[in-house]
Design brief:
Radius of gyration: 27 Å
Bound molecules: 2-acetamido-2-deoxy-beta-D-glucopyranose
Number of domains: 2
Organism: Camellia lanceoleosa
Strand content: 15-25%
Protein name: Glucan 1,3-beta-glucosidase A
Helix content: 25-40%
Length: 513
Amino acid sequence: METKLTRQIILISICIILCFMVTLYTWRVRRPNFKIQAVNLGGWLVAERWIKPSLFDGIPNKDFLDGTSLHLKSPTVGKYLCAEWGGRSIIVANRTYATIWETFKLWRINETSFQFRVYNKQFMGLDTAGNGIDLVAVTDMPGGRTETFQIVRNSDDLNRIRIKASNGFFLQVKTADLVTADFKGNDSWGDDNPSVFIMWISGRFDGEYQVTNGYGPTKAPQVMREHWSTYIVEEDFKFVSKNGINAVRIPVGWWIASGPTPPQPYVGGSLQYLDHAFLWAQKYGLKVIIDLQAAPGSQNGFEHSSTRDGSQEWGQSDQNIQETVAIIDFLTARYADNPSLYAVELLNEPLSPKASLDSLIKYYKAGYEAVRKHSKTAYVILANRFGPADPKEFFPLASGLDGKVVIDVHYYNNFNYTFYGMNVKQNIDFIYSYRSSQLSEVTTSNGPLTFVGEWAAEWAHFLSVKKEDYKKYAEAQLEVYGRATFGWAYWTLKNVNKAWSLEWMIKNGYIKL
Ligand SMILES: *[C@@H]1O[C@H](CO)[C@@H](O)[C@H](O)[C@H]1NC(C)=O
Ligand SMILES: *[C@@H]1O[C@H](CO)[C@@H](O)[C@H](O)[C@H]1NC(C)=O
Ligand SMILES: *[C@@H]1O[C@H](CO)[C@@H](O)[C@H](O)[C@H]1NC(C)=O
Ligand SMILES: *[C@@H]1O[C@H](CO)[C@@H](O)[C@H](O)[C@H]1NC(C)=O
């Protein structure tokens, strides 16, 4: 009787212990007890002017960078220059308003010479098939001299320009329907001068392409190396490690894998600074997430993906996808043996619908395998698409992969009209209600881990916000995003805009981790 009871007790105990171990195991595998509290090192190896405007200060003729959009009005006829049909046709000057077909995007050749790209992506040029002086937009790739123009600016009124063609003559608006390059030019900038255009800059890009091409091949290497070596230094790693941060997410551009002489206008050598980052991370016990922020062709047309003029061409061919996989392969191979390598994010903020689900699934699968080839332990982060997309669209893919998969979502209460009218309380409520439920939707017990890879305690517009409000707003986000199973990362460590700088927020007591 006694032995039977003892045996039963032992059996039950074993069952309980086994159950406990199984639970603990699944819990550990599904939810690592270590969570990322990271900061992004934005604006470092991929430049962004709004983060560090001074980097762009020394560019000659810096109003005219790659992708700058111009609207050009002829005062003589009182109408806007326009690529008829948006391209593949003639240039006219007969439009009352400037919108899409009236937008010309610059490709910068050097500080005085430019090409003008129209809506359908053709370049303005002389009609070499015709009389050689009429203006057309028919060429898809600017090959010859006739697509290159000089912009001459009136020093007394910077909004007045003249455009000189490669034949040595200025453009002139002869009639609203006829624009030709045959004006000899004189010094008058009056409204009666048919070669004068009144210019409005309607859009611009300020990323890595613009800064490197803006400085040009002689100056850019010097400027970029100075920036890389001074902007983020060992002291920053020490600072964050002492202030509750346990990881850094480092945005890199595709050219980092192109050796010392990447394609123009990019500057080689940023890889060396990523090497430094890994050394410092190891020294201060920080994890590193490598984040491919700029893929070849641009995955979103934003300046932070180093687009030249807003075009988004990533993922449109297998070759382009393979090229991107090779970059992931290269970077993982390089750092796989470094204990600080924690995760590789395959692509930042691909934008739907142009970055298609099909091409991303293909790429994410191949990118995952490229990481696994070198590392069994690194997490692989798949970013959700920006724009219209199902937040769980990569779940079927993730479940077919061999573990350690993370979904990245970015939560900014900015860049969207929804937030413009919101006061402090509404913003904070939005975090507790909407963001919280958004995050729970993607945080499932058997799905991928979740990562709020970018957020900031900044509001959509500058309410007169008190320090206490900032603190509450940051705390709300820390509380909600702290539920992400992989962790979160603040955007960004340093920024001239204070609330976007975690360093400033910590040093001034706005955020405490
Ligand atoms: C700018 O480029 C044009 C066209 O290639 C060339 O003729 C000119 O000499 C260049 N100017 C400078 C300052 O490099
Ligand atoms: C502008 O000029 C072109 C060429 O003559 C003509 O086909 C077009 O209808 C004109 N558009 C307007 C809005 O006047
Ligand atoms: C310059 O050209 C404009 C337009 O043809 C003309 O009205 C003006 O008189 C000219 N000025 C001089 C100084 O030649
Ligand atoms: C703006 O944000 C709201 C809330 O996140 C979202 O429902 C809406 O789709 C967003 N609009 C745009 C244009 O992104």
